[in-house]
Design goal:
- By secondary structure, this protein is of the alpha+beta class.
- It folds into three domains: about 110 residues, no CATH class; about 60 residues, Orthogonal Bundle (Helix Hairpins); about 150 residues, 2-Layer Sandwich (Heat Shock Protein 90).
- It is built from nine helices and seven strands; from the N terminus they run ααααβααββαββααββ.
- The strands form two sheets. It has a five-stranded mixed beta sheet with strand order 2-4-5-7-6, with helices on one face. The protein has a two-stranded antiparallel ribbon with strand order 1-3.
- It starts with 8 loop residues before the first helix and ends in an 8-residue tail after the last strand.
- It is an enzyme of class 2 (transferase).
- It is a multi-pass membrane protein.
- Pfam families: HAMP (PF00672), HATPase_c (PF02518), HisKA (PF00512).
Length: about 350
């Protein structure tokens, strides 16, 4: 691509200043030559001051032309940027500037401005989604607890009181689950470098999670297909437990009754690979593309329990171990999560 003659802003100022000096010098040299040749400054002439008036007029014309040029080419883009920044400061994040500009510095400045506005817009959207989602997640169990407290204040049988207390306990557990996930996610994002790593039995940890969730998968009469050979891994035991808990809980939650869940662990020189498959309701591609986003829930009716943080937390934990997580899913056929954890995170 051919380089422009004056691609940078400072070069425009240098060129304009130099051009101004050359023009003024040339004009004055020519005028002095004419004045000397025709003896125009002779006091005997009635119009001997005319050359001075002409020089002043010509200087004003040259100054006006150069001022218009500078304002049009250099100062106007800065003014447009100032107006755009003023609109962004008032909350208009749809503002975008035309990046095609002859001055390279101005084009880059406009590009950086557009990128900044896009980032601010995404942050504002995320903030709004966060506030609305968290407020909704807190509001629902709080309203439930409040309702059952009011019912307990009225006359009720012992069996009804027990039901109300159990449902109040469910509401408090939901709030605890939400706050725990938010705190864990914040800890991972801000303090992930300081995670405590140690050697532990990965296959035994997955078995512990399966036993912990036994009441849930037994209730649906699910069949578990397990391949868990002895595997030792160097990682953060606490947070990896959360990974298997989240993935297994989702596999059970979205499985059909009398279905199957397949959990396979393979180990090689690079590291263990874990695959968790279910035969549940599955997901569309639009859902799988956003499934690891914070607070994203494909079930907008909130008929299923959750707050959209489990898989975001899972992915963050895997990334902190320098691993990978992939998902494949087909509606009405089930979903498959494949995780890889490198034995040597530094060289992964």
């Amino acid at each position: 691509m051919k380089k422009k003659l004056f691609p940078q802003l400072w070069m425009y100022f240098v060129a304009i200043t130099f051009l101004l000096m050359v023009i003024v010098l040339t004009v004055f040299v020519c005028l002095l030559f004419l004045i000397n040749h025709f003896h125009l400054l002779s006091p005997e002439r009635d119009d001997h001051l005319f050359p001075f008036y002409f020089i002043i007029f010509l200087s004003l014309v040259i100054g006006a032309v150069l001022s218009i040029f500078v304002g049009k080419r250099i100062l106007q883009p800065i003014g447009d940027l100032r107006q755009a920044m003023s609109k962004v400061a008032k909350g208009d994040f749809s503002m975008q500037l035309e990046e095609k500009h002859q001055i390279e510095d101005v084009a880059e400045l406009y590009h950086d401005f557009n990128v900044m506005v896009e980032e601010l817009s995404s942050i504002e959207t995320l903030r709004n989604d966060f506030v609305s989602t968290v407020s909704h997640e807190f509001k629902t169990p709080l309203a439930t607890i409040k309702g059952y407290v009011q019912l307990l204040q009225n006359e009720a049988s012992e069996s009804e009181r027990q039901i109300y207390l159990e449902r109040m306990l469910d509401g408090t557990q939901q709030l605890t689950h939400l706050t725990d996930n938010i705190l864990k996610l914040s800890k991972l994002e801000n303090q992930g470098i300081g995670l405590d790593f140690q050697i532990f039995r990965l296959d035994e940890q997955i078995r512990e999670v399966i036993l912990f969730l036994q009441p849930k998968w037994e209730q649906l009469n699910l069949t578990l297909d397990l391949t868990l050979p002895r595997t030792e891994y160097y990682g953060n035991e606490e947070f990896l437990y959360q990974v298997w808990l989240n993935l297994m809980d989702n596999a059970i939650k979205y499985s059909q009754k009398n279905g199957s869940i397949h959990i396979h662990l393979t180990n090689d020189a690079l590291g263990p690979t874990i695959t968790i498959c279910d035969e549940g309701i599955g997901m569309t591609k639009a859902v799988t593309d956003r499934i690891f986003d914070k607070f994203y829930q494909s079930d907008t009716s909130r008929k299923t329990y959750g707050n959209g943080l489990g898989l975001a937390l899972t992915k963050q934990i895997i990334l902190l171990h320098h691993g990978t997580i992939q998902v494949k899913s087909t509606p009405e056929q089930g979903s498959s999560f494949k995780l890889f954890l490198p034995n040597d995170p530094k060289n992964s």
